[in-house]
Structure formats: structure tokens, C-alpha cells
Amino acid sequence: MNKIIMKHVSKSFGQTCVLSSINLEIQEGEIFGLLGPSGAGKTTIVKILSGQLSYQGSVWIDQQECKNHTDAWLKTIGMSMDEFGFYRRLSIWDNLCMFAKLRGVSKQRVIDVLRQLSLYDERKSAICNLSKGMKQRLSFANAILHEPSLIFLDEPTNGLDPNTMKELHDMIKHLNEQGTTIFLTTHNMEEAEKLCDHVALLNEGHIVLYGNPKALCCQYDHLKTITIQTKDHQKIELPNTANSAQQLSDVLRRNNIETIHSSEANLEQIFREVTGRGLS
């Protein structure tokens, strides 16, 4: 069943067109990735879907036109934005307890979430003293505090070190396994390939490509080759066809393979091919 449907959605600020006739269908319970460089319109789409911006066209979430959603519905979504609006001089604990009270969430739930995200021991720390990674975890904590069915994550790992990024990826996967629909915006193509069931590539307000990441990478594999680096420092390139089976088998039997790679493209290369520019 579709969780989100966008039909011919456009948005302009004055004379500047930011989005042009966007069409999207996002399934309930999937991780969906919206990819594009800064300024492509990713955050604008998130703000439209979360009721923060007006638009032209039709947007349906949970089988109801977005323009008709009530305040009660807004409490069923979570958001993790780069600038979420925490009170910098207050502690982690005071900030989350304030948001919990607004949403009717118990303090025990606050404790549980802080422990889940390894923030409990730092709960008395002021927001202004937190590292980038801790702020991202705190934003994520606030997004899941009320156990929403739909969560928007806007560049959730931007600027994080690899270890903290992996921790957040694991949290996102766990949340999705519990049935939560995740709408992820990112310009990190590796992140999208690892996490997303489907992605849309956004460029200058237009969706230029949509599909499953692995399927797209195979679709844009123009070389269709297998490259083998042998232990005796030879490089062997074979067509990725049944005709190469015997040669590949011979190398395997000799136990002479150091590395082996197929030639499918990644999302960064696909985006460059389709648009002539990079994601970063």
C-alpha cells in the first residue's frame, strides 16, 4: 500500500521554480531515498510532505490529501532536520522532556530512547556543548520519541565520522524493521545504496531517475565486465557473460584470485551520466 503519493507537485518562491511536476509513490514500510546535490529541492519536498509549505498539485499521505491533515495527524510523523530547534543552553534531558510533554510521552520513554541511542550518560550536558555526532543522535532521538509511523530524515549523517554514521545506519534499519516508513534525503550515494529500497534522483527541481538502487546500478552497467586481479599481479578482464565461465573457473581452480569485481556503476556515476554533474 502507498504511504505517500505526489502527483504533479510544483513549488515556486517568487519567480524561482524550485520543484517542477514531481510524481512519486512511496510504499508503506520502505526506506525511500531522495538524492540530489545541495539546492536540488530535497528539503522543499520534505517541508511540503510535513505540512510546512503550500504547493501546487496533489499530495496524499495515509490515503488523505495532505492539505486536509489535522494537528492530530502531524503527531504521527517524526522529523530529524539539520537545525531542529533545540534550546542550546538547556540539557539533553530538559529538551527531550519538554518535547515529550508536548506529545504526551512519558519520562520513561525518554529514558528508554536516551539509552537506546547511547545518550543517557550525557543527559545533563547542555546542547551547546555537544559534538556534531551527539547532536545528530539527539535529533534522531527526538524524531522517534513518540514512535511515529513515518519519519523524515534530512541529511541525517552529514558531517559525521564513519563510526557514528554506521551507528545511525543501524538505528535506521532497526526502526524500519519495526514497520516505520523512512523518508531519507541525502547526497551520499553509498548511504542510499546501503539503506534504501527505492531512490529518486532529484536535479534542479526535477526527478530524473527512480528505481531500486541495485537495479539501477545493473541497468547502467554499460561495460558488463568482470575484472580479476591475480595473486601474481595480472589483471584479467572478462565479458560478464556465460562465455567467460570456463576462464573464470580456471582462475578459481588455480586459487590465484586476489580481488574480483563486476563493472556495474554506482549511483554517483549514474547521476553524472544522467545530469552531467555530481551529487556532492
UniProtKB/TrEMBL annotation:
Coiled coil (residue ranges): none
Pfam families xrefs: ABC_tran
Protein name, as recorded: ABC transporter ATP-binding protein
Keywords per UniProt: ATP-binding, Nucleotide-binding, Transport
GO molecular function: ATP binding
Ranges of residues in domain ABC transporter: 4-229
Taxonomic source organism: Amedibacillus hominis
Highest taxon in the source lineage: Bacteria
